[in-house]
Amino acid sequence: MQPLSPEKRAARKRRKGLVHKAPAKLPQVRNEINVTPLVDVCLVLLIIFMVIIELLARGREVPLPKTRHHAEEADQNQPIVAIDVDGNIFFDKEEIMPGVPALDTKLEELKKRIREEWRSGKSKDQRVYVKADVATEYKSVYPLIMAIHDLGITSIDLGTHELKEGE
């Protein structure tokens, strides 16, 4: 048998060192919370809630009058019409013809949008949900209600907040 060259001897030593290496020490158990995954999950949940909350709110937000003993019916996905204290009319969250002072023109556009909503089949029955600002005078709301009535609607739901005991 021939003697090994110095390079081959060094290579064999390295291989032996790798094969007969002592097992690596296991790291000690750490008893602290890994916060990174917790923060990741919380941020994802926050984003989900921010998106869903926006989808849950329907119609333009206006301060509604407070009443006692009102119906607690589930949402029927009917069209939502809102009128604010300035007399601006909103269909869902979108203002009807902003900048146009003629009320008749706005009401005709509103009728058109309500008809389109019913044709799309989103609402189960022909009802309209009206939200009027608590500070809006009746003379501003009456033409809106009459325009909806002209569509043949016999059921108009008026939006209110329930007056809690002690208020």
Describe the structure in your own words.
It contains four helices and seven strands, in the order ααββββαβαββ. With 167 residues, it is an alpha/beta fold. It has a domain at 76-162: Nucleotidyltransferase, domain 5 (2-Layer Sandwich). The strands form two sheets. It has a five-stranded mixed sheet with strand order 4-3-2-5-6, covered by helices on one side. A two-stranded parallel ribbon has the order 1-7. β2 and β3 form a beta hairpin. α3 crosses α4 (138-149). The mean pLDDT is 82.
User: From the helix content, strand content and strand pairing, which structural class follows?
Assistant: alpha/beta
What would you say the CATH architecture of the domain at 76-162 is? Answer: 2-Layer Sandwich
How many H/I helical runs? Answer: 4
Shape: elongated
Q: How much helicity do the residues have?
A: 25-40%
Main sheet specs: 5 strands, mixed
CATH class bucket of the domain at 76-162? Alpha Beta
In sequence order, what are the helices and strands, one letter per element? HHEEEEHEHEE
CATH level-3 fold name of the domain at 76-162:
Nucleotidyltransferase, domain 5
> What is the terminal separation in angstroms?
105 Å
Strand content: 5-15%
Strand order of the largest sheet: 4-3-2-5-6
What are the low-pLDDT stretches, counting only 5+ consecutive residues below 50?
none
Mean pLDDT figure: 82
Number of strands: 7
